[in-house]
């Protein structure tokens, strides 16, 4: 990565403000149900504290409060979890800007402070310069370790970098290094597994990866629009009718570039989503039936291509994996990825990361991205504003 990191700047005695991605899932009793994002931020937090900073001020958003205070979206549960994980007291504030916040930080004996949810202010998502300045006023150095929001130009991800020396944390660095190497200089063959619901969400991704990958394996809901483009019967499977021509164009482009495209060729189908006991495996989908998972032939074919891969990027489940009856394809692919030797396996954030977790292969992947949208935009070849704003090396 060509951006400065916490290792390139003197932190001793400095007040450091760090943007984290603490947007964790909470249950109804406001218990954190998955602390992966907090755990992922610990290396940078510990490093900054270890360098003897004067104060480490952490900030994040949580949920979608849309510019107002929402009690259920306070960061208090995160502060508690952080205390447990760090083994030291964290000062939780009930605001993120202003004199009171400044005063509390100045008076605090704690080394670590957590500001209240940034999105309680609408200025955060508007990238309001005054709001950015108020955040910047709390510290002397800015660190961005929130990969999950790096694709958004918000006050705490982009605006603030105009007022303070801005560097990356380790999590951000790791994400950019893994994803960057995969798309710019992959060990080959470079195979991409694409799934998920819609083609429309992944058009830019496919267009970019056609120029980079050796093979694209397409499953999940999005495959049906491609299959339709090839004149196949897809029954009542999910279709984006207005994207059929585009899908045809992408297939032609891939062919012209010599990129191998493997589409699902057999399917787990049902007439009624709620009646999985009636499911069957078919190669031709009749009217009234809906494809919800890939079948065994497709799984075997995907595995065959994956068996020689040296780099794999996985973005999107190949079936409705949330429901056990339609999870087999995604499970088998996830488990197969876990067995690959001498292969860099990268899992895009969001649903694929949840699938890797559900099927217990998390530890066996080279890298699981913590940011769904951000990893998607990065793999699309887009500049992430939160990264672009950091100081060049
Ligand atoms: P995305 O957010 O676009 O990656 O889509 C992920 C979602 O796609 C998951 O919630 C899956 O349940 C869903 N999905 C995967 N395969 C299918 C399918 N064949 N039909 C409908 N939805 C699907």
Describe the 3D structure:
By secondary structure, this protein is an alpha/beta fold. It folds into two domains: 163 residues, 3-Layer(aba) Sandwich (Rossmann fold); 204 residues, Rossmann fold. It has a six-stranded parallel beta sheet with strand order 3-4-2-1-5-6. The chain has a six-stranded parallel beta sheet with strand order 9-8-7-13-14-15, sandwiched between helices. A three-stranded antiparallel beta sheet has the order 11-10-12. Helix 3 links the parallel strand 3 and strand 4. The radius of gyration is 23 Å and the shape is elongated. The termini are close together. 49% of the residues are buried. The model has no long low-confidence stretch (mean pLDDT 96). The site of adenosine monophosphate (AMP) has 17 residues, from strand 12.
What attributes does this structure have?
393 residues, alpha/beta, Rossmann fold, 2 domains, 6-stranded parallel β-sheet, 15 strands, 34% helix, elongated, binds adenosine monophosphate
């Amino acid at each position: 990565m060509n951006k400065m990191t916490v290792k390139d700047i003197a932190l001793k005695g400095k007040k450091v403000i760090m943007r984290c991605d603490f947007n964790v899932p909470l249950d109804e009793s406001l218990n954190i149900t998955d602390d992966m994002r907090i755990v992922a931020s610990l290396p940078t937090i510990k490093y900054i504290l270890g360098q003897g900073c004067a104060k480490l001020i952490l900030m994040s958003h949580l949920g979608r409060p849309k510019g107002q205070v929402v009690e259920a979206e306070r960061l208090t549960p995160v502060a508690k979890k952080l205390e447990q994980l760090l083994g030291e007291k964290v000062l939780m504030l009930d605001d993120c800007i202003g004199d009171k916040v400044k005063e509390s930080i100045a008076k605090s004996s704690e080394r670590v402070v957590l500001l209240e949810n940034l999105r309680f202010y609408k200025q955060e998502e508007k990238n309001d310069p005054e709001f950015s300045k108020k955040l910047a006023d709390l510290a002397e150095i800015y660190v961005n370790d929130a990969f999950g929001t790096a694709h958004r130009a918000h006050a705490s991800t982009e605006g603030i970098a105009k007022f303070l020396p801005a560097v990356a944390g380790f999590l951000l660095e790791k994400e950019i290094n893994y994803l960057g190497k995969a798309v710019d200089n992959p060990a080959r063959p470079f195979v991409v597994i694409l799934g998920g619901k819609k083609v429309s969400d992944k058009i830019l991704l496919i267009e970019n990866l056609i120029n980079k990958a050796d093979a694209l394996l397409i499953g999940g809901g999005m495959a049906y629009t491609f299959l339709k483009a090839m004149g196949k019967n897809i029954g009542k499977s999910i279709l984006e009718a207005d994207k059929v021509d585009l899908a045809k164009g992408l297939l032609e482009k891939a062919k012209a570039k010599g990129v191998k495209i493997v589409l699902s060729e057999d399917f787990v189908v049902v007439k009624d989503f709620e009646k999985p006991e009636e499911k069957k495996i078919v190669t031709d989908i009749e009217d009234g039936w809906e494809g919800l998972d890939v079948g065994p032939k497709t799984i075997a074919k995907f595995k065959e291509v994956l068996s020689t891969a040296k780099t794999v990027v996985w973005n999107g489940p190949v079936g409705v994996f949330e429901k056990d009856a339609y999870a087999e394809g995604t499970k088998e692919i996830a488990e197969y990825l876990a067995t690959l030797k001498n292969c860099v396996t990268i899992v895009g954030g969001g649903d694929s990361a949840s699938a890797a977790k559900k099927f217990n292969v998390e530890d066996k992947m080279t890298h699981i991205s913590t940011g769904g949208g951000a990893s998607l935009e990065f793999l699309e070849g887009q500049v992430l504003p939160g990264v672009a704003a950091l100081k060049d090396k």
